[in-house]
Design brief:
This protein is mainly beta. The chain has one domain: SH3 type barrels. 9% of the residues lie in helices and 34% in strands. A five-stranded antiparallel sheet has the order 4-3-2-1-5, with no helix packed on it. A hairpin with a 2-residue loop joins strand 2 and strand 3.
Length: 88
């Protein structure tokens, strides 16, 4: 059978599966600060197409953060765990 060449066909190679310490899960970000999305494949599911995007922290919701960024002409908001975020 021929191999699929779809959007998620190389997903396992694109996402890094590293063991992260507890400090990455306990990070805090100020509201209004800039962050970069880094998808951590070992913790939860975040769409790979958002990997590497820069965003702005809007608010805190539970253990995660609401972030906002522009995707072409649309403004998108996501609720993301702090393990997927890093400061700019």
């Amino acid at each position: 059978m021929k191999r699929s060449h779809g959007f998620y066909s190389k997903r396992s190679r694109k996402i890094t599966k590293k063991r992260r310490g507890i400090t990455t899960m306990l990070r805090t970000f100020e509201i209004g600060s800039g962050v970069r999305l880094r998808v951590d494949g070992s913790k939860g599911a975040l769409p790979l197409r958002f990997n590497g995007r820069t965003a702005k922290v809007i608010a805190r919701q539970g253990k995660g953060y609401i972030i906002e960024f522009r995707d072409l002409n649309a403004v998108k908001r996501l609720v993301v765990a702090p393990i997927h975020l890093e400061t700019i």
